[in-house]
Design goal:
The chain is globular, with a radius of gyration of 15 Å. The strands form two sheets. Strands 3-2-6-7 form a four-stranded parallel sheet. The protein has a three-stranded antiparallel sheet with strand order 1-4-5, with helices on one face. It is α/β, with parallel strands linked by helices. The chain starts with 7 loop residues before the first strand and ends in an 8-residue tail after the last helix. A hairpin with an 8-residue loop joins β4 and β5. It has one domain: Uracil-DNA glycosylase-like domain (Uracil-DNA Glycosylase, subunit E), CATH 3.40.470.
């Protein structure tokens, strides 16, 4: 008998991370099971987001949620996801369906965001489908920091993601 994981509806458990100095918004898709459990962005230890951000900004990779918040906020970044709630199976972005998008005006109306980047192709596609018609703001697609994106080494990710530094000052 073939068994498969059923998709479940989840609601995003993490508030957007931004402040009045945030100039660059980085959007993911939706938190993985590990991130939902840890109630913070990119909480899975194999996700390379924090290693990439630390390599670009200078300090060692942050370990605690407070250190991660400090890295983002002190460097003019904002982090959130395109999806507020959805049905998803496990951590598979490709299984996301029945999307309710986040209200990006929460950030865009309160921070001087100059540039928006998508962490991966699914975040980009979902932004273009659900958020772009409301914001009218362009987004640039970056390669996903997910461990599922094994074709990209950490070094290649850091090089590709270095474009985020251009917009934050």
């Amino acid at each position: 008998m073939k068994t498969s994981m059923a998709s479940e509806r989840f609601v995003h458990p993490v508030e957007p991370l931004f402040n009045e100095n945030s100039r660059v918004l980085i959007l993911g898709t939706f938190p993985s099971p590990k991130s939902r459990e840890g109630k913070f962005f990119y909480h899975h230890p194999q996700n390379r987001f924090w290693k990439v951000m630390a390599a670009l900004t200078g300090p060692p990779a942050p370990e605690t949620i407070e250190e991660k918040k400090e890295l983002i906020l002190s460097n003019g970044f904002a982090v959130w996801d395109v999806v507020k709630s959805c049905r998803v199976t496990g951590a598979s972005d490709s299984s996301i369906k029945d999307v309710v998008p986040t209200d990006l005006s929460i950030i865009l109306d309160h921070a001087p965001i100059e540039k928006i980047y998508a962490n991966g192709g699914t975040a980009y596609k979902l932004y273009m489908k659900y958020s772009y018609p409301k914001t009218g703001r362009p987004i640039e697609k970056l390669p996903s920091t997910s461990p599922a994106n094994a074709a990209w080494s950490l070094e290649r990710l850091i090089e590709a993601w270095s474009v985020i530094l251009e917009s934050r000052r």
